[in-house]
Amino acid sequence: MDLSTLGGLLLAVGALVGSLLMDGGELKSLWSASALTLIIGGTVGATAVSFPLEDLRQLPRLLIKSFTGAREDAMASIDTIVSLVEKARREGLLTLQNETPKLNDPFMIRGIELVVDGTDPQAVRSILETDIAFMEKRHRSGASILETAGGFAPTMGIIGTVMGLVHVLGNLSEPDKMGPAIAVAFLATFYGIFTANVFWLPLANKLKARSADEILLRELVLEGVLSLQAGESPRIVREKLEVFLSPKQKKAVPRGEPQSTTVSEDNV
Fold first, then answer.
1. Start-to-end C-alpha separation, the chain
2. Model confidence band, residue 1 (pLDDT cutoffs 50, 70, 90)
3. Residue 32 φ then ψ, to 5°
4. pTM passes above 0.85
5. Long-range CB pairs of 110-113, under 8 A, 24+ apart, other chains included
6. Which end of the chain has fewer CB atoms < 10 Å from its terminal CB, N or C?
């Protein structure tokens, strides 16, 4: 579970409820089934019109990933690559085909298999870079769905408010009911703005952040695979790949101490 996503949503909702209660309001005053139906149904419907069905099928998986996805461990990937480099220098590249079943990263496995098959380095780079590019395109499409929903939600809120006001103005013969009716009409705008800025747009940003992390990791693996193919020393490979780490991650790397480079599932 991603605590920042869940915690952020709870904080936003808690701030809303807290401010309402501090002003002496009641939670039931923010409830309108008809307005909520319009906002959710209208937003999802308008978004569905904007994208092909195959892209929309990704939405449930993307939402789950926003809440449950764990950040990739770049340091573990570096350790794994360096251990593969050491093994290749001792026993030859062909021995790495016995190590791929122990890896959990499909992208790394693909790169190692290309190297073991004797693929030209330029071809290896081209194939893996194309893989990264299309992955980024898929991720961008997923984030765009949520961003589009975030754009439609406030507009649907305005539509709901206008519909409510039309209903109010059509019943001016009952002035004592106008106040509550107008309040309910404006709930649609509230729902639209709230869902856009607390749910749709923040989740789109989270997916973008996840995508950036995954792209960085794949670029790290790409450079590691090419270094392995070039026969560079384990020390040089480690130094080269640690460039991809954040300053905080670099500080956590022990210096002057031997690091375990055993290839196992614990390292991937």
1. 20
2. low
3. -150, 110
4. no
5. 111/221, 111/222, 111/225, 112/84, 112/225, 112/228
6. N
Read off the pLDDT of residues 9-47 as tens digits, 9 standing for 90 and up: 899 999 988 988 888 888 888 888 888 999 999 999 999
Residues 6 or more apart whose Cβ sits within 8 Å of residue 19: none
Is the pLDDT confidence value at 81 over 90?
yes
Is residue 228 within 8 A of residue 88, CB to CB? The reply is yes
Contacts of 217 (CB under 8 A, 6+ apart): 72, 74, 77, 244
Ordered by start, the domain boundaries in the chain are: 35-48+70-154+187-245
pLDDT score of 256 more than 70: no
Q: What is the mean pLDDT of residues 103-109?
A: 93
If pLDDT is split at 50, 70 and 90, which confidence band does 258 have? very low
* DSSP state letters, the chain: --HHHHHHHHHHHHHHHHHHHHTT--GGGG--HHHHHHHHHHHHHHHHHHS-HHHHTTHHHHHHHHHHPPPP-HHHHHHHHHHHHHHHHHH-GGGGGGTGGG---HHHHHHHHHHHTT--HHHHHHHHHHHHHHHHHHHHHHHHHHHHHHHHHHHHHHHHHHHHHHHHHTTTT-GGGHHHHHHHHHHHHHHHHHHIIIIIHHHHHHHHHHHHHHHHHHHHHHHHHHHHHHT--HHHHHHHHGGGS-HHHHHHS-SSS------SGGG-
Predicted local distance difference test score (pLDDT) of residue 267: 37
Percent of the chain residues topping a pLDDT of 70: 91
